[in-house]
């Protein structure tokens, strides 16, 4: 049996009826194969997205039978109008931006050198890669509890710092209990779980670089550091773009670590936009904040789309 | 819902990092200098290995301490290591039940993902039908929808369908959550299967279903293992949707059981660490066994 392409050119004039029935059959088979995925997508994806969009234009507490339409009121309330919620949203937005800059920066600044080091050794490479990957594999509530245990006032980090003679760096209130160290600490933990993937991507990138390029650089008298900064780093720019994009996306949407480790505390100093939306959706009792929660979710969605568009442009302009 | 994200671009098979090992020469012509460079590299790698393993080390340490020793401070190696904390934690809090719930949800989600999206990937890669590009694009663009944006509508939908708090109520959105990544990976893998295989199978009279099942599916086995891991691990660890969906303690998964422990009146750190260890160990074992697939697949998935 020939492919449809072949039939297009050779068999059409002679056997149009067979061809058409074959095409119809293949199309029907195709729809049959995608049906389960599409049905689930329509229900869990399309329906929920549209529902959320509609809800973002309404006021509802989840219990009354009807929604009250408020147009773009929720969006205005979030951005500036509501005297209680707008300031919370603004400071949460500021923190989210800090996280979106700091986590990708750390992931690149540590992931890249780590990959270079790992690529330069021959023995124990598999061992190191396995250990470096543990944070990614176990990312979840269990590891965040372990971090909380390590970071608490009588936790091991304070203990280790004191024994290393760095007692001034220790935090008597715990690293998560002090309002000025809580957010930086969470950023470090987020970076800790983001570094494995960044490292792995750089590692595959490094291994795809033609060794003759590196040899040429060396023949020209470039040292290791110079080869890295002037040759390897520019070649891996697409990977850097991917690492930055992934981590910005996760920083924008992810709030699980904030929920588990501080729940926004102390005193709201670690509330980010995702967590604020979550609280508006699930922890505001009978107050009609579900529309606000949806509107905030959609604002995040719009920012994610803008980021994706920027990323596509950056990748295209550089390759 | 925490499936590792990918940059929306068709993926290529990645070179195997292990096979592509290329011992790069250390800089400098002098052997002493070369040795020094290598030593520095190992020291730095070892330092980061400590950072990487730090919380696990303390998790294990805490899990083997009793309730008195856990309060006495910062030594890593327990003076009187005990299994009683682990045993006690396992028994006292229906952990067997939570473990079972987690296992059922993870296995069903993974099976559903493999079935649904290998079928869809096959259709997108091999069959020709009107609208397939549009559908493929729709699935991939789901990647950009933040989980929080659909979290509340999802819970309302579960409630409307009468599946709020049930296992199926979690399994269905979990399956859908991995759709973009799974479809991208599998479509690309199926595209790489030589078309002649399908031709000859069809000539031998095999139907479409048969061709899919006995020719194409075995050919993309590595991709299927990768997808299974990329689905199973985040599903096992999932917390946010489970927390807002499950009300009845008898339906809790392990992460919720852990959360429940910590919100009790006086949570003890050794018990929390024991519970955390119980959650983490299966994932770590799975990872160690299938590491090769995981690392390669992830690189392929994210690289694009």
UniProtKB/TrEMBL annotation, chain A:
It is a multi-pass membrane protein. Its main location: membrane. The keyword Iron does not apply. InterPro entries: ABC_transporter_permease, MetI-like, MetI-like_sf. The keyword Transmembrane applies. It is found in: Cell membrane. Residues 93-311 form the ABC transmembrane type-1 domain. This is Carbohydrate ABC transporter permease. The lineage of its organism: Bacteria, Bacillati, Actinomycetota, Actinomycetes, Kitasatosporales.
From TrEMBL, chain B:
Pfam families: BPD_transp_1. It comes from Streptacidiphilus cavernicola. This is Carbohydrate ABC transporter permease. The keyword Disulfide bond does not apply. PROSITE patterns: ABC_TM1. The keyword Transmembrane helix applies. CDD domains: TM_PBP2 (cd06261). Gene3D superfamilies: MetI-like. Residues 15-24 have a biased composition (Basic and acidic residues).
């Amino acid at each position: 049996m020939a492919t449809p392409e072949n039939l297009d050119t050779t068999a059409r004039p002679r056997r149009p009826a067979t061809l058409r029935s074959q095409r119809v059959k293949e199309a029907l088979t195709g729809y049959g194969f995608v049906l389960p995925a599409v049905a689930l997508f329509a229900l869990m994806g399309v329906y929920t997205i549209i529902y959320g969009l509609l809800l973002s234009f309404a006021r509802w507490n989840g219990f009354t039978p009807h929604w009250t339409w408020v147009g773009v009121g929720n969006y205005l309330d979030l951005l500036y109008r509501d005297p209680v919620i707008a300031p919370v949203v603004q400071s949460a937005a500021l923190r989210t931006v800090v996280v979106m800059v700091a986590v990708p920066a750390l992931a690149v600044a540590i992931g890249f050198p780590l990959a270079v080091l790992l690529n330069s050794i021959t023995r124990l490479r598999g061992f190191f890669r396995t250990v470096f990957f543990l944070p990614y594999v176990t990312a979840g509530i269990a590891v965040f509890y372990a971090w909380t245990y390590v970071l608490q006032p009588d936790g091991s980090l304070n203990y280790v710092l004191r024994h290393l003679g760095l007692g001034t760096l220790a935090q008597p209130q715990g690293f998560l209990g002090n309002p000025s160290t809580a957010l930086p600490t969470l950023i470090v933990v987020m970076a800790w779980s983001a570094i494995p993937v960044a490292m792995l991507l750089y590692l595959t990138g490094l291994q795809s670089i033609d060794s003759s390029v590196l040899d040429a650089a060396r023949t020209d008298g470039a040292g290791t550091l110079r080869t890295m900064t002037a040759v390897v780093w520019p070649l891996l720019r697409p990977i850097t773009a991917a690492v930055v994009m992934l981590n910005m996306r996760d920083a924008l949407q992810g709030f699980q670590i904030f929920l588990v480790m501080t729940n926004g505390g102390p005193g709201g100093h670690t509330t980010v936009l995702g967590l604020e939306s979550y609280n508006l959706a699930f922890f505001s009792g009978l107050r009609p904040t579900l529309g606000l929660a949806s509107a905030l979710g959609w604002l995040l969605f719009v920012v994610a789309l803008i980021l994706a568009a920027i990323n596509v442009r950056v990748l295209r302009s550089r390759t | 819902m925490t499936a590792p994200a990918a940059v929306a671009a068709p993926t290529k098979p990645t070179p195997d990092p292990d096979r592509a090992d290329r011992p790069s020469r250390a800089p400098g012509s002098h052997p002493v200098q070369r040795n020094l460079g290598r030593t520095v590299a190992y020291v730095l790698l070892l330092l980061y290995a400590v950072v990487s393993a730090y919380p696990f080390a303390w998790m294990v340490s805490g899990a083997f301490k009793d309730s008195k020793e856990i309060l006495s401070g910062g030594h890593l190696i327990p003076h009187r290591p005990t299994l009683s904390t682990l045993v006690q934690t396992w028994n006292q809090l229906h952990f067997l039940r939570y473990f079972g719930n987690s296992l059922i949800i993870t296995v069903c989600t993974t099976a559903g993902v493999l079935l649904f999206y290998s079928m869809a990937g096959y259709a997108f890669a091999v069959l020709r039908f009107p609208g397939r590009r549009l559908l493929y694009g729709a699935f991939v663009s789901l990647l950009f929808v933040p989980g929080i944006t659909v979290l509340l509508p999802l819970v309302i939908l579960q409630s409307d369908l009468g599946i709020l708090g049930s296992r199926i109520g979690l399994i269905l959105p979990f399956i859908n959550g991995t759709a973009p990544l799974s479809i991208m990976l599998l479509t690309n893998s199926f595209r790489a299967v030589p078309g002649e295989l399908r031709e000859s199978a069809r000539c031998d009279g095999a139907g479409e279903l048969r061709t899919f099942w006995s020719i194409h599916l075995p050919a993309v086995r590595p991709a299927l293992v990768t997808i299974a891991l990329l689905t199973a691990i985040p599903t096992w660890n999932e917390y946010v949707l489970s927390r807002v969906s499950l009300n009845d303690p008898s339906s809790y998964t392990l992460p919720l059981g852990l959360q429940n422990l910590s919100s009790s009146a006086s949570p003890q750190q050794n018990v929390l660490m024991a519970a955390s260890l119980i959650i983490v160990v299966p994932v770590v074992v799975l990872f160690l066994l299938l590491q090769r697939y995981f690392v390669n697949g992830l690189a392929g998935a994210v690289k694009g």
